[in-house]
Amino acid sequence: MNAIKQELYNLCRQHVGNSIREIEAALADRREAMHNETKSSMGDKYETTREMLQQDINMNLDRLNKAKADEAAMMSINPESSLQEVVPGSLVQCSNGNFYIAISAGPFTIAGTKYYAVSLSSPIGSQLKGKQAGDTFILNGTSNTIHAVS
User: CA–CA separation, 117 vs 99, rounded Å?
Assistant: First the structure.
């Protein structure tokens, strides 16, 4: 289990790093486009284009802040720790799937088994928080059982 947790941890860190690089590249591109936008005789078109670029920059800044928060969340996880209750860094095997509690990064497949990286603030993460093997929880009207926590 520890090898799987380490690999999931690494995949989540890689996911965050890729996101940050992509967002920073998009920001640089938009800033350059805004810098290169010259005021023409069509003032309204110039203002509209600049406003659209500024809105795009603001959206990407918000995305960058979330990605940096995800990066900080990953830095706070010790992938080698193993507790009996669900906390950040836990690998949880349930009747409805396998979950790595870290950040919302989607599914990863390791050795043919699918694992979902989810945050504690996600619907399933909030249901799993603090639970132990043998506990049950309801998600979308369906009862699920936790088989193992590591």
Answer: 6
Candidates 133, 32, 150, 137; CA nearest to 81 is 150
> How many other β-carbons are positioned within 10 Å of the β-carbon of residue 74?
21
Exposure pattern of 8-23 as b/e (b: 16+ CB <10 Å)? Answer: bbebbbebbeebbeeb
State residue 44's pLDDT score. 66
What is the rounded CA–CA span in Å between residue 29 and residue 32? 5
List, for residues 110-123, the tens digit of each pLDDT value.
999 999 999 999 99
Would you list the DSSP string of 8-64? Answer: HHHHHHHHHHHHHHHHHHHHHHHHHHHHHPPP-S-HHHHHHHHHHHHHHHHHHHHHH
Cβ atoms of 103 and 75 closer than 8 Å: no
DSSP 87: -
pTM summary value: 0.87
Reduced to 3 states, what is the DSSP secondary structure of residue 4?
helix
Residues in the chain: 150
Q: Which among 95, 99, 115 has a CA at the least distance from the CA of 107?
A: 115
